[in-house]
Amino acid sequence: MRHRSLTQRLVTRAYASQVPLPPFYRPPPSPPSAADMSSSSEPPTLIDGLPILERKNVLGSALRPAPVGDGPTTGFFRNNYCDASPHDPGSHTVAAVVTPTFLDFSKSRGNDLWPLFPSLRKQLSPSTTAPQATTPCVWCLCARRWYEAVKAAATHPLGDEIIPRVVLEATHERALQDGGFTAEEVAKYPAEAVIGSIGSKEWSK
Predict the structure, then answer these.
(1) Domains of the chain and any CATH numbers
(2) What is the pTM for the complete model shown?
(3) Which of 91, 132, 148, 155 could be joined to 143 by an S-S link, Cβ 3.0–4.6 Å?
């Protein structure tokens, strides 16, 4: 019974990463290998009985929790950390500030994340608006999905507006390898406003 419950949780957590990418994309990155997990003499950290890689961000310092504010709980393990694990083939490692513009773009690419963020809907009908989020929505996005937006921005009518800004302190260093981008590239899109509004409060807990 325990095994079945764990399997169901894994399927639920990874559902957003299973939508096929356009044909010009390479296959999903390989999950962390045994060598990755054994690079330290310390035993691996376990969450729900599953191992995770060392919590280090793209800045080379300790990984911070994603400052989700009033948004939904995020991360592959739903612990508000963009952890990297061999059991997460989608690599939900980029702490991205989700916007309506990005959600529309993602939906156009076959990955509809709108149901996760109803508070970001601008208008349900001409006379009824959806409740507005009081703080920015930060989500542990698949590394390949974030870089998909970066590459598409060059020819997209909205340009860089479709690229989610990134909370660098909460983005796992594994995102660089799995997403195929560099630390310099992701550093071009910092979410400094998010840190100023809700990050310091959540990190002081």
Answers:
(1) 2-18+48-203 (3.30.56.110)
(2) 0.74
(3) 91
